[in-house]
Amino acid sequence: MRQLAMVMDLNKCLGCQTCTxxxxxxxxxxxxxxxxxxNNVETQPGSGYPKGYxxxxxxxxxxxxxxxxxxxxxxxxxxxxxxxxxxxLMDGSAKTLRPDSENTWSANWDEDVGDGEYPNxxxxxxxxxxxxxxxxxxxxxxxNKAIRKREEDGIVLVDLKLCKGAMECIKACPYKKVxxxxxxxxxxxxxxCFPRIEKGLPPACAKQxxxxxxxxxxxxDEEGHVYKLVxxxxxxxxxxxxxxxxPNVYYVPPLSPPKFNEKGEVTDEPxxxxxxxxxxxxxxxxxxxxxxxxxxxxxxxxxxSELMDTLIAYxxxxxxxx
Length: 322
Prior knowledge:
By secondary structure, this protein is of the alpha+beta class. The protein has ten helices and 15 strands.
């Protein structure tokens, strides 16, 4: 089995949602998928999408036992997209644009909120897709064997011919990246744009990324960016490795601006707490950040850095080896 993987550089993500729009228009623009975001970009610190997904007990425990969490309620923890009072605004019966329903949550509800107090507030963007895990909890939980992992590239797919809508996969996925289609009564998820992959094209989210943050390739391809970032330099690490699913989407963690003291002077203390980053990315985040800072220092001195050149991605096409 080979494993296709993606690396996202969080230091370059603009939070522009171009990747979300690319996915939405290509795959999730049909009935029952209105609330589905196979790709979403959330603000961290934040509750994410669906709301509080990281707080569910799911995935695998330390002894290799499957943990099944809960199903986030719809629409409370997802939020169904709403319309606005366009008609009333046009006929003059309303003076302001407003939603046509009461809403308490949706994708990006807490966008750019973050944490900390001025002048030491902070946040960063975290793009998410299905992790196409090496040990997918969704696959293990499905009672109808409707989920499979392809041998040729490791992409995890739901077979709608077999899916009975049991939703056990949603319970088991700790990232809550499996969705229930309200129209057809079955579950659906990110397919890593496999029809594009089979034609030698990168996933739509990666191809359309404005900030060039997404590298796509096989983990065993030693000449590819993914192999180098994950295995050679070890600066790309998975989200919540403690969930035990061995995800194949990796992140170059965010560097932190420094804090200001009471006098307004710059200090050596990072604004993003290291403990928060460890919770998200595990203890390896310290080594990854140290390597990034060291290689950035080389660039500042005018020295060569293969790592920095790879992350800068001067040539877009070199980011994808499929």
